[in-house]
């Protein structure tokens, strides 16, 4: 354990796992589109599927802060794949 309570230090290579991308389900072309459409699109197209969202740099987007970063760094579209 490191000095931060409750966290474990691990080499990066242990944390990175390859992901095989399945079908491209849909894309968000802009932050505003994600804000307005994400809930309905995930319910409509991906409600029973495991998905991953990737920006143009290949970074995973999970939370709002990740989508905000993509907006700020101009890395839309964000593609949503089945995994």
What does this molecule look like?
With 83 residues, the protein is of the alpha+beta class. The chain has one domain (12-82). The protein is built from three helices and three strands. The chain has helices at residues 12-15, 31-45, 64-72, and strands spanning 24-28, 51-54, 78-82. It has a three-stranded antiparallel sheet with strand order 1-3-2, covered by helices on one side. The N and C termini lie far apart (32 Å). The model has no long low-confidence stretch (mean pLDDT 86).
Short description:
The chain is of the alpha+beta class and 83 residues long.
Write down how many β-strands occur, each being a DSSP E stretch of 2 or more residues: 3
Radius of gyration: 15 Å
Determine the mean pLDDT.
86
**Strand-pairing-aware structural class:** alpha+beta
Q: How far from one another are the termini?
A: 32 Å
User: How would the global form be characterised?
Assistant: globular
């Amino acid at each position: 354990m490191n000095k931060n309570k409750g966290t474990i230090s691990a080499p990066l290579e242990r944390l990175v796992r390859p992901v095989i991308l399945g079908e491209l389900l849909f894309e968000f072309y802009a932050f505003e589109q994600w804000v307005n459409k994400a809930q309905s699109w995930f319910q409509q197209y991906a409600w029973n599927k495991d998905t991953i969202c990737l920006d143009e740099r290949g970074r995973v987007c999970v939370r709002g802060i990740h989508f905000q970063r993509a907006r700020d760094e101009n890395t839309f579209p964000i593609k949503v794949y089945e995994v």
